[in-house]
Design goal:
mainly alpha, 7 helices, elongated
């Protein structure tokens, strides 16, 4: 059953990832009537929210966009920073949405930020502890239990990420619409692109929960 579950999750992850790439390509061809670039949109959204201590910078790669709360930078990929289309508008506004969350001390983002150092350390050792725990489950089950507790922190991080990402998208879309940065066709494209981006986090959370339950079952069914 675990193998079937993992295959299903891997299939869903592949499907969502491909759909996201397809949507990004599609809406990258929907050029904005106002002619604003992703960087300009990000800077305007920051200014409209009174945030003046966050920089908008370009980062290499594709779909590598992120907000870094440590140095307060909105990092936009090359395909977003310079481009002037619905996909770039959606991604740029979404990342600024995280900056707005940070500035307003959004509770879910605060919780996720506190989990980052724990998850960073846990991710380096948890798989080895779980593997050793499974091999020694009949003689030293406590080791597997330790692994389960550590892995549960990464699962919690995946779950907490969901409201953070959805809220950032909602903030982005509301601002794009209220400030009339995009027209109705461009707004629809931005919504669709962000919808598929959010689904990548949903699949990741489901996968993490499924894996955690698998290890719990091994521990509970030990002989």
């Amino acid at each position: 059953m675990f193998i079937i579950l993992m295959v299903a999750i891997m299939g869903a992850s592949w499907l969502v990832s491909n759909r996201l790439q397809s949507k990004f390509d599609k809406y990258s061809k929907l050029h904005l009537q106002n002619g604003m670039s992703g960087a300009e949109i990000a800077e305007k959204m920051l200014a409209d929210h009174g945030i003046r201590n966050v920089r908008v910078i370009s980062t290499p790669g594709r779909l590598t966009d992120h907000y870094n709360p440590a140095d307060k930078t909105v990092n936009l990929s090359e395909a977003v920073y310079n481009q002037r289309n619905a996909a770039a508008a959606a991604v740029a506004a979404h990342e600024v949405g995280h900056a707005v969350q940070h500035a307003t001390a959004y509770s879910w983002l605060t919780m996720r930020s506190k989990l980052v150092p724990v998850v960073s350390v846990a991710s380096r050792f948890v798989q080895w502890i779980l593997l050793a725990g499974i091999l020694m489950v009949n003689t030293f089950p406590e080791l597997l239990l330790v692994g389960i507790v550590i892995f549960s922190m990464t699962t919690l991080f995946s779950v907490v990420t969901l409201p953070v990402e959805y809220d950032a998208s909602n903030r982005a879309l509301a601002w794009l619409e209220n400030k009339r940065i995009v027209n109705q066709q461009e707004l629809a494209g931005s919504k669709d692109a962000l919808k598929w981006a959010a689904r990548t986090y949903v699949v990741a959370a489901i996968g993490s929960i499924g894996t955690l339950l698998y290890y719990v079952m091994i521990y509970m069914n030990r002989r």
